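We read letters as residues; the fold follows as tokens. Both lines appear below.
***
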Amino acid sequence: MLVLESLDFHARVSPWRPALVDSQRVITFEQLAALVHAAVARLRGGNLGEGAIGICAADPMLHAVLLLAAMHDGRASCVLTGNGPRPPQALRLAACLTDGTEPLAECPHWAIGPEWLALAPGQQPRQPRRPFAGADPMLRYVFSSGTTGLPKAVGLSASNIAARLINLGTLGLPEGRAECAMMLLTLSTSWATQQFLLRVAAGGTQAFARSAQDALAVIQAQRVDLLAGSPLQLRGLADLAEALGLRLPHLRHVLASGSPLSRAEAMHIRARLCSNLVERYAGTEMGQMAERPPGFTDAAEGFLGQPFPWAVLEVVDPAGQPVPRGTPGRLRARSNSMAPGYVGDPAATAEAFHQGWFYPGDTAVLLPDGRLHVLGRETEMINAGGVKSSPTPIRDFIATQPGVKDVAVMGIDLPGRPTEIWAALEAEEGLDLAALDRACRAALADRAPVRLVPVASLPRNANGKVEMATLRTRLAAT
């Protein structure tokens, strides 16, 4: 995959070039290479057994160093968070490297901290690289979004990651041309991991931030030219930039993925952050599958974009037979970067991976011109009293109403009653629910929510997606 070889090359040819930056630190390629070797020495000094290592680090720079150190030591790394999903029993970890939280009791814990980012004076001893075992070894374990159920562990092999890096570096995509890129998602996500490894391989700079205000400061100070994140993160950043009256002239591209952008959200992000807004349709299991380019003017509900050439997409009926162009159905996909399945979960693998296809659980249409129109999640389509509705247009309308900060829409099943449309709202103080209800009924008619439920916050995962199963359980209990 040549990521480590590229790191060594850049450390020799451009040792002064920034590799990692945040609001307080700059780590050059020479320093990054030395930190990786120092981390490998620490790992080998602990006489670890065979197996992957878990990484639970809030500091993204520390996580980045440990990810590369694991690769140098011939080990896969597994993402862990204090309150996140646990790895399956089939994935045996040699140790968990933790910055304070102890997410697992089944394996040894190693305390990690700022000292792992501090270089001792003098020349750092180089550690010989240990090869991975097997022809196509696993390099990274991450978790699916779990928006409609429990997150599932996904193993990404050397060939999976290599294909994703090559894909992202081709076609003149922004990732392949950026000098300094910021990913708002954490390295616990597959997209952020791929973006970081691509920056290392290409000799670019990876910028990190801990908050929206921190992100704006780093974008300005480091002249970030590529920004990527979830719609929620980008919307929050656009709100803050507007409130502070900031302009970001060096920002050339913004990438959004995780959930569909409404037209109002897209216009806001383009106006406040960067006009070159690209929306991606992607998944942990598949990588990037399609994109909606900058300046789209269509008013279609959900995602509407052009499939990438490496993604083969089909829309099929319940029997698995392809349907004619323009006909809604179940989306399935395959590509050169598709994961083999879910680790330690044969039932979930059999349900989502079948005969070389991955079924992401979306209802979609392939249009006559080849574009992909994703209508929504299969499990989120609402059949309320015989009226079938996508939650997307309902959400998009409510999100534009005064006093609404964020919203999620779903079907709620109560005993003895037909399915009802409910909306959970993050609202500003003083929101007039009665006035909002009247506006919904006037605009949405029989698709208007039966209940508008204010909540302190919507539960979201690391990808910025609303955890619908968790939210549905909370609402049903009200």
